[in-house]
Amino acid sequence: MKYGVAIFPSKKMQDEANSYRKRYDPHYALIPPHITVKEPFVLEDKELEATISELREIAKSTEPFPLSVRKVSSFSPVTNTIYLKVEPVDELLKLNEKLHSGNLPNEQTYAFVPHITIAQKLSDDEFSDVFGSLKMQSFDMEETIDRFQLMYQLENGAWTVYETFTFK
Amino acid sequence: MKYGVAIFPSKKMQDEANSYRKRYDPHYALIPPHITVKEPFVLEDKELEATISELREIAKSTEPFPLSVRKVSSFSPVTNTIYLKVEPVDELLKLNEKLHSGNLPNEQTYAFVPHITIAQKLSDDEFSDVFGSLKMQSFDMEETIDRFQLMYQLENGAWTVYETFTFK
Prior knowledge:
2 copies of one chain form a homodimer.
Chain A: E1 2-7, H1 11-24, E2 35-42, H2 48-60, E3 65-74, E4 82-86, H3 90-98, E5 115-119, H4 124-134, E6 141-145, E7 147-153, E8 159-166
Antiparallel strand pairs in A: 1-2, 1-7, 3-4, 3-6, 4-5, 7-8
């Protein structure tokens, strides 16, 4: 089964992100707004328990950290993805590292850029329009993150939660 | 904020339910297939911690129980809702009771009928067609449930997980 690890920001930040996702993100209906801290990976049923133990240890060794969003950014020209840029605080970067160490699958093939996607798979024209207007905007959202969620993917592409891991 | 308590069945059962929900349930995109064990209720932020303590105690006093689906049923003529009928085993009924006792909001105004909705808000004709064909079908799904999830609702009607509570 395919699993992933995500952080959900507060309802307020999710509502803000959804106001863009509704129009610009075809994944809008598949999962609420989130920060992916571990990209999708495949686990056999028999591997699940050991993985959960590792995730529990990682959560225990993680301190709650601030989640700040000040502006949007994009992965252009690689993809036409626009996202709320999440400040890369140490504790979040360390969490991402820990989630790719030990016996956990290490599928991460590029640098971790913490973000909340709000638009993707746009045409070039649409991308220019939307990003052009959004990049002028400043955001001022800050909150505290104290947990991550292990999710699994259904056949229709949607994600269901399996378990919550709260920090110490 | 509006919260609710749900049980998600296995991926297999969710995929089966989604094969119907995709066509017949306008809530398809708002939450994965689930059993509602506590209807939506409102909590102030300051009430959240105490509620979570209660939910934790309830989970600790609950034994894993079998979830069996043998057939579909409906809430007709009250509503044109069709659902996978979940066998009302004692441990599930007791869990529902416990979730409406103590200091927890007791908003339940009708008898608890454990179910996984697969179709709702159908026209009368559509309902007759779909239910007429589904009620002839037998299902043979059984699995073990060992957790419930506290969810909260976003402005767009979608639900995000807050925390998982695993049984003892």
